[in-house]
Design brief:
The chain is mainly α. It has two domains: about 80 residues, NADH-ubiquinone/plastoquinone oxidoreductase chain 6, subunit NuoJ (Four Helix Bundle (Hemerythrin (Met), subunit A), Up-down Bundle); about 40 residues. It is built from six helices and no strands. The longest helix is centred in the middle third of the chain and has 26 residues.
Amino acid sequence: MNEILFYSLAALTLGCGLLVVANPFSRNPVTSAMFLVMTILSLAGLFVLLGAFFLAAVQVIVYAGAVIVLFLFVIMLMGSHELPRRAFHWLLAAAACLVTGALAALLLRLLSALKTQPPAVGAPVEGGTALLGRLLFTDYLLPFEVVSVVLLVAMVGVIVLSRKEAA
């Protein structure tokens, strides 16, 4: 049963990820954002299959909840409902296929060079939300606060830049 769930979630992730970039159904960016939500949700399902429940919850809350809402806010604010179709360039497509093939060959060469050894069995790794929270608010408090201030400044900047000029 786990194999069937894994392969179906993996196929859904790859399919929706492809539809985010190359969507033949619609040129509307909101449709691509919805396919991105489906990609993120199916990735969260893969994390659940791996037993990483916290990571799955963070994936859904942070990415599907906050980031996609931000994307949709920007898309709606910019007012680009339909994107114009662009001309297809054969030279760029051939270059992209060449680079993709070279990267795939490099990856296959790297994987074939690795020695297949069973993983070393050691003590189980302990980690959870309590340890993560303790580290974030003790050792990494300053970087955590700097990131929050940078995000706040970015939000204010977006609001100021997107405001319509008063007549």
